[in-house]
Amino acid sequence: MPGSKLPVGICPDMCPAAERAQRERERRLHRFEVEREWTGDPPRADPQRTVKEYNRPAAGKPRPPPSQLRPPSVLLATVRYLASEVAESPDAPLAEVASFVADRLRAVRLDLVLQSAGDAETAVVLEAALATLLAVVARLQPAETRGPVDPVLLQTQVQESFGSLRRCYAQSAGPHPRQAVFQGLFLLYNLGSAEALYEVLQLPAALRASPPLRTALAIDAAFREGNAARLFRLLRTLSYLQSCAVQGHVGHARRAALARLARALSTPKGQTLPLDFMVHLLALDGPHEARDLCQAHGLPLDGEERVVFLRGCYTEKGLPPAGTCNVLVGSKLRGRTLEEVVMAEEEDEGVFRPS
């Protein structure tokens, strides 16, 4: 409200003690939050693992007191925990991890909105939260999105995270060392969107000239033009976080490239093309993925090494195969942990630092 002053959070824990106790009584603890050695009933909350869950603010409900709000330093530590401990859980389904992380990151953004925090601190927390969300969503396979996680809701939360961060950039003078990186991620995530391209083109010229944004603009142009050779050549050069942002468009780009090849090469008697060429052109993970892609689009194979472009055979049914994307995404980690990527991505990409 006009003239009102936001409080400053003072909660020292990832989850306020009152909420932790209430959820323990109501049996609303996630298994990621329960004490590991506890075998009694009801489950006991672990203060070092319990993370504040998202609760939609209700109309007319009073604001939470400072004791219920986590300051930026605690919020950043919470994001680090989610990236290092929860997202890397080896024995948990990826869909369950994504659902939990997305909900807790949503609560992180809400805590920032409900309190007074510096622009620099806010930007750092929002950047880390968005990077974690992008990585967690990118690890999901299409079959896993039919379970406990809603892919539409995840996509909405990613877009909301971009909106919060870009508003933070616009409302403050900065400097924000990672702004160019995340503005580029915004365009890569919304590849082919005229609205996203327009918003990026409205950024200051010096910012648009930074390496991350130049790369993102070049990829967007290649995607729009249907230049598959240039597009996948550029995609190979991206960092892990950039690759996570653009992964959702890879299947559609491969389908579009295959459709162009089918129009150009199909003959009544059939014309063959080596699968190795397809693997190189479309940055596939190997001949097996090239065979799956061709068969999913009705193209027959000549043995194990060639595809036949026969007129009238190419079809498109449903969504394009997602593929494993190890070449374009998974291999980019290069032995680093997700926490290292989330907190130090700028070391790989050359941060643009405004003069």
Automatic annotation (TrEMBL):
GO biological process entries: centrosome duplication; spindle assembly
InterPro entries in UniProt: PCI_dom (IPR000717), SAC3/GANP/THP3 (IPR045107), SAC3/GANP/THP3_conserved (IPR005062)
GO cellular component: centrosome; nucleus; spindle
PROSITE patterns: PCI
Biased composition (Basic and acidic residues): 20-55
Domain PCI: start-end pairs: 157-351
Region called Disordered, residue ranges: 19-71
Name this protein carries in UniProt: SAC3 domain containing 1
Lineage of the organism: Eukaryota, Metazoa, Chordata, Craniata, Vertebrata
